[in-house]
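The record is kept unedited without comment:

——
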Amino acid sequence: MEDKWFNKTVQETEQNLETNINTGLTQEQISKKLAKYGLNELQAQKKKSLFVKFLEQFKDFMIIVLIFAAIISGAISIAQGEAITDSIIILVVVIVNSIIGVAQEAKAEKSLEALQKLSGHEAKVIREGNYTNFPGFYGFLFRNADTLPLSSNTRTMIKFMQAADTILKRGDFILIYPEQSLWWNYEKPKPLKNGAYKIATRSNVPVIPIFITMKDSNIIGEDGFPIKEYYVHIEKPIYPDVTLSEKENVEKMKNENFEVWKNIYEEFYGIPLEYTTVKEEVNEEI
Protein backbone atom coordinates (compact mmCIF):
# COMPACT_ATOMS: atom_id res chain seq x y z
CA MET A 1 0.00 0.00 0.00
CA GLU A 2 1.28 3.47 -0.89
CA ASP A 3 2.44 5.57 2.05
CA LYS A 4 0.09 8.44 2.89
CA TRP A 5 2.66 10.91 4.16
CA PHE A 6 0.07 13.54 5.07
CA ASN A 7 -1.32 11.17 7.72
CA LYS A 8 2.05 10.49 9.36
CA THR A 9 3.53 12.24 12.35
CA VAL A 10 6.94 13.92 12.20
CA GLN A 11 8.45 11.04 14.16
CA GLU A 12 6.95 8.42 11.83
CA THR A 13 8.18 10.28 8.75
CA GLU A 14 11.63 10.63 10.28
CA GLN A 15 11.77 6.89 11.02
CA ASN A 16 10.46 5.80 7.60
CA LEU A 17 12.94 8.01 5.76
CA GLU A 18 15.82 6.82 7.97
CA THR A 19 16.92 10.35 8.79
CA ASN A 20 17.33 12.61 11.80
CA ILE A 21 15.37 15.85 12.07
CA ASN A 22 18.22 17.60 13.91
CA THR A 23 21.33 16.41 12.10
CA GLY A 24 19.99 15.27 8.72
CA LEU A 25 21.58 12.57 6.58
CA THR A 26 25.22 11.54 6.67
CA GLN A 27 27.31 11.54 3.52
CA GLU A 28 27.24 7.74 3.51
CA GLN A 29 23.42 7.70 3.63
CA ILE A 30 23.26 10.28 0.84
CA SER A 31 25.50 8.16 -1.40
CA LYS A 32 23.37 5.04 -0.80
CA LYS A 33 20.08 6.85 -1.47
CA LEU A 34 21.45 8.48 -4.63
CA ALA A 35 22.56 5.07 -5.89
CA LYS A 36 19.14 3.57 -5.09
CA TYR A 37 16.71 6.36 -6.05
CA GLY A 38 18.73 8.75 -8.20
CA LEU A 39 18.42 12.55 -8.12
CA ASN A 40 15.26 14.19 -6.79
CA GLU A 41 14.24 15.79 -10.07
CA LEU A 42 11.73 15.34 -12.86
CA GLN A 43 13.00 14.12 -16.19
CA ALA A 44 12.47 16.80 -18.82
CA GLN A 45 10.57 15.55 -21.87
CA LYS A 46 12.03 16.06 -25.31
CA LYS A 47 10.51 19.11 -26.99
CA LYS A 48 8.43 18.52 -30.11
CA SER A 49 9.34 20.24 -33.36
CA LEU A 50 7.02 22.84 -34.90
CA PHE A 51 6.20 20.42 -37.73
CA VAL A 52 5.08 17.71 -35.29
CA LYS A 53 3.01 20.25 -33.35
CA PHE A 54 1.41 21.36 -36.62
CA LEU A 55 0.47 17.79 -37.57
CA GLU A 56 -0.98 17.18 -34.11
CA GLN A 57 -3.50 19.97 -34.71
CA PHE A 58 -5.22 17.68 -37.23
CA LYS A 59 -6.06 15.13 -34.51
CA ASP A 60 -8.94 17.29 -33.32
CA PHE A 61 -12.36 15.77 -34.17
CA MET A 62 -13.80 19.01 -35.59
CA ILE A 63 -10.72 19.49 -37.82
CA ILE A 64 -11.15 15.96 -39.17
CA VAL A 65 -14.86 16.67 -39.88
CA LEU A 66 -13.94 19.87 -41.73
CA ILE A 67 -11.31 18.07 -43.82
CA PHE A 68 -13.82 15.39 -44.81
CA ALA A 69 -16.36 18.12 -45.58
CA ALA A 70 -13.82 19.86 -47.84
CA ILE A 71 -13.04 16.60 -49.67
CA ILE A 72 -16.71 15.72 -50.18
CA SER A 73 -17.57 19.28 -51.24
CA GLY A 74 -14.67 19.30 -53.70
CA ALA A 75 -15.64 15.92 -55.18
CA ILE A 76 -19.26 17.03 -55.67
CA SER A 77 -18.17 20.35 -57.23
CA ILE A 78 -15.83 18.58 -59.66
CA ALA A 79 -18.54 16.04 -60.58
CA GLN A 80 -20.98 18.88 -61.32
CA GLY A 81 -18.35 20.89 -63.18
CA GLU A 82 -18.38 23.67 -60.64
CA ALA A 83 -15.51 25.53 -58.93
CA ILE A 84 -14.10 24.06 -55.71
CA THR A 85 -14.13 27.43 -53.97
CA ASP A 86 -15.92 26.11 -50.86
CA SER A 87 -13.38 23.29 -50.41
CA ILE A 88 -10.47 25.71 -50.74
CA ILE A 89 -12.01 28.07 -48.18
CA ILE A 90 -12.53 25.22 -45.71
CA LEU A 91 -8.93 23.97 -46.13
CA VAL A 92 -7.55 27.50 -45.72
CA VAL A 93 -9.55 27.89 -42.50
CA VAL A 94 -8.24 24.53 -41.25
CA ILE A 95 -4.61 25.43 -42.03
CA VAL A 96 -4.86 28.92 -40.51
CA ASN A 97 -6.51 27.44 -37.41
CA SER A 98 -3.66 24.91 -37.10
CA ILE A 99 -1.03 27.64 -37.40
CA ILE A 100 -2.78 29.70 -34.72
CA GLY A 101 -2.96 26.57 -32.52
CA VAL A 102 0.80 25.96 -32.84
CA ALA A 103 1.55 29.61 -32.06
CA GLN A 104 -0.67 29.57 -28.96
CA GLU A 105 0.89 26.32 -27.76
CA ALA A 106 4.41 27.73 -28.18
CA LYS A 107 3.40 30.90 -26.32
CA ALA A 108 1.91 28.84 -23.48
CA GLU A 109 5.12 26.77 -23.19
CA LYS A 110 7.25 29.92 -22.95
CA SER A 111 4.96 31.36 -20.28
CA LEU A 112 5.20 28.12 -18.28
CA GLU A 113 9.00 28.14 -18.53
CA ALA A 114 9.06 31.75 -17.31
CA LEU A 115 6.85 30.85 -14.34
CA GLN A 116 9.10 27.91 -13.48
CA LYS A 117 12.12 30.21 -13.42
CA LEU A 118 10.30 32.64 -11.14
CA SER A 119 9.11 29.99 -8.71
CA GLY A 120 11.48 28.95 -5.93
CA HIS A 121 13.27 25.65 -6.30
CA GLU A 122 15.48 25.98 -3.24
CA ALA A 123 15.10 24.32 0.13
CA LYS A 124 17.09 24.59 3.35
CA VAL A 125 18.74 21.21 3.86
CA ILE A 126 20.61 19.79 6.85
CA ARG A 127 23.58 17.54 6.09
CA GLU A 128 25.57 16.06 8.97
CA GLY A 129 24.20 18.75 11.25
CA ASN A 130 25.22 21.66 8.98
CA TYR A 131 23.05 23.81 6.75
CA THR A 132 24.20 23.66 3.14
CA ASN A 133 21.89 26.41 1.99
CA PHE A 134 22.01 29.82 3.62
CA PRO A 135 19.79 32.88 3.07
CA GLY A 136 20.98 36.28 1.94
CA PHE A 137 24.43 37.24 0.67
CA TYR A 138 26.25 34.29 2.26
CA GLY A 139 23.75 31.93 0.68
CA PHE A 140 24.41 33.53 -2.71
CA LEU A 141 28.14 32.89 -2.27
CA PHE A 142 27.60 29.26 -1.26
CA ARG A 143 25.36 28.62 -4.27
CA ASN A 144 27.35 30.50 -6.89
CA ALA A 145 30.98 30.77 -5.79
CA ASP A 146 32.12 27.14 -6.18
CA THR A 147 32.16 26.61 -2.42
CA LEU A 148 33.82 23.50 -0.97
CA PRO A 149 32.09 22.76 2.37
CA LEU A 150 33.98 21.11 5.21
CA SER A 151 32.59 17.94 6.76
CA SER A 152 33.03 15.78 9.82
CA ASN A 153 32.98 12.73 7.53
CA THR A 154 36.48 11.37 6.81
CA ARG A 155 35.64 10.14 3.30
CA THR A 156 34.15 13.53 2.42
CA MET A 157 37.28 15.32 3.67
CA ILE A 158 39.47 13.06 1.51
CA LYS A 159 37.40 14.18 -1.49
CA PHE A 160 37.68 17.77 -0.25
CA MET A 161 41.49 17.59 -0.25
CA GLN A 162 41.49 15.99 -3.71
CA ALA A 163 39.17 18.73 -5.02
CA ALA A 164 41.34 21.45 -3.47
CA ASP A 165 44.46 19.97 -5.07
CA THR A 166 42.76 19.77 -8.49
CA ILE A 167 41.53 23.37 -8.30
CA LEU A 168 44.91 24.74 -7.24
CA LYS A 169 46.92 22.79 -9.82
CA ARG A 170 44.81 24.14 -12.67
CA GLY A 171 45.78 27.67 -11.62
CA ASP A 172 42.64 28.73 -9.74
CA PHE A 173 42.40 30.19 -6.24
CA ILE A 174 40.74 28.95 -3.05
CA LEU A 175 39.55 31.43 -0.44
CA ILE A 176 39.83 29.82 3.01
CA TYR A 177 36.87 31.13 5.00
CA PRO A 178 37.68 30.51 8.70
CA GLU A 179 34.25 30.36 10.32
CA GLN A 180 35.53 30.03 13.89
CA SER A 181 37.47 33.31 13.59
CA LEU A 182 34.47 35.41 12.57
CA TRP A 183 34.37 37.76 15.55
CA TRP A 184 32.18 40.75 14.75
CA ASN A 185 34.21 43.95 14.27
CA TYR A 186 37.23 42.40 15.99
CA GLU A 187 40.24 44.41 14.82
CA LYS A 188 43.21 42.26 15.85
CA PRO A 189 44.56 39.33 13.80
CA LYS A 190 42.70 36.18 14.75
CA PRO A 191 44.32 32.83 15.65
CA LEU A 192 45.63 31.05 12.57
CA LYS A 193 44.94 27.36 11.92
CA ASN A 194 47.12 24.90 10.05
CA GLY A 195 44.60 23.83 7.40
CA ALA A 196 45.24 26.44 4.69
CA TYR A 197 49.01 26.05 4.97
CA LYS A 198 48.81 22.27 4.75
CA ILE A 199 46.75 22.55 1.58
CA ALA A 200 49.23 25.04 0.12
CA THR A 201 52.24 22.89 1.04
CA ARG A 202 50.76 19.67 -0.35
CA SER A 203 49.83 21.37 -3.64
CA ASN A 204 53.03 23.47 -3.71
CA VAL A 205 51.17 26.75 -4.15
CA PRO A 206 51.46 30.07 -2.30
CA VAL A 207 49.17 31.55 0.34
CA ILE A 208 48.04 35.15 -0.23
CA PRO A 209 47.54 36.94 3.12
CA ILE A 210 44.33 39.01 3.25
CA PHE A 211 43.57 41.23 6.24
CA ILE A 212 40.62 43.55 6.89
CA THR A 213 40.96 46.74 8.93
CA MET A 214 38.15 49.06 9.95
CA LYS A 215 37.43 52.50 11.33
CA ASP A 216 34.42 54.66 12.11
CA SER A 217 33.10 56.80 9.27
CA ASN A 218 31.50 60.23 9.52
CA ILE A 219 28.08 58.71 8.82
CA ILE A 220 25.84 57.92 11.79
CA GLY A 221 23.66 54.83 11.49
CA GLU A 222 20.09 54.31 12.68
CA ASP A 223 21.41 52.89 15.97
CA GLY A 224 23.15 56.20 16.73
CA PHE A 225 26.67 54.84 16.18
CA PRO A 226 29.09 55.63 13.33
CA ILE A 227 28.95 53.26 10.37
CA LYS A 228 32.17 51.28 9.93
CA GLU A 229 34.47 51.64 6.93
CA TYR A 230 36.29 48.45 5.96
CA TYR A 231 39.65 48.22 4.16
CA VAL A 232 40.79 45.00 2.50
CA HIS A 233 44.59 44.51 2.41
CA ILE A 234 45.89 41.97 -0.11
CA GLU A 235 49.58 41.29 0.43
CA LYS A 236 52.41 39.47 -1.38
CA PRO A 237 52.17 35.67 -1.72
CA ILE A 238 53.95 33.41 0.76
CA TYR A 239 55.47 30.39 -0.96
CA PRO A 240 56.27 26.97 0.55
CA ASP A 241 59.92 25.96 0.68
CA VAL A 242 60.49 22.71 -1.22
CA THR A 243 63.51 21.94 0.97
CA LEU A 244 61.38 21.83 4.15
CA SER A 245 59.01 19.14 5.41
CA GLU A 246 55.26 19.67 5.45
CA LYS A 247 55.23 20.40 9.17
CA GLU A 248 58.11 22.87 8.86
CA ASN A 249 56.48 24.60 5.93
CA VAL A 250 53.17 24.92 7.76
CA GLU A 251 54.83 26.62 10.73
CA LYS A 252 57.02 28.84 8.50
CA MET A 253 54.14 30.03 6.31
CA LYS A 254 51.78 30.49 9.24
CA ASN A 255 54.35 32.61 11.13
CA GLU A 256 55.09 34.71 8.03
CA ASN A 257 51.37 35.23 7.48
CA PHE A 258 50.92 36.38 11.07
CA GLU A 259 53.84 38.82 10.77
CA VAL A 260 52.23 40.34 7.66
CA TRP A 261 48.92 40.76 9.51
CA LYS A 262 50.73 42.19 12.54
CA ASN A 263 52.54 44.81 10.44
CA ILE A 264 49.30 45.85 8.73
CA TYR A 265 47.52 46.15 12.09
CA GLU A 266 50.23 48.25 13.72
CA GLU A 267 50.69 50.53 10.69
CA PHE A 268 46.95 51.10 10.22
CA TYR A 269 45.97 51.63 13.87
CA GLY A 270 49.28 53.18 15.00
CA ILE A 271 49.52 51.00 18.11
CA PRO A 272 51.47 47.82 18.95
CA LEU A 273 49.62 44.53 18.64
CA GLU A 274 48.95 43.12 22.09
CA TYR A 275 46.62 40.39 23.35
CA THR A 276 45.08 40.23 26.82
CA THR A 277 43.99 36.60 26.50
CA VAL A 278 46.11 33.55 27.30
CA LYS A 279 47.12 31.44 24.32
CA GLU A 280 46.55 27.73 24.77
CA GLU A 281 48.51 25.11 22.88
CA VAL A 282 46.17 23.16 20.60
CA ASN A 283 47.22 19.98 18.81
CA GLU A 284 45.87 20.41 15.29
CA GLU A 285 45.39 17.49 12.95
CA ILE A 286 43.87 17.15 9.48
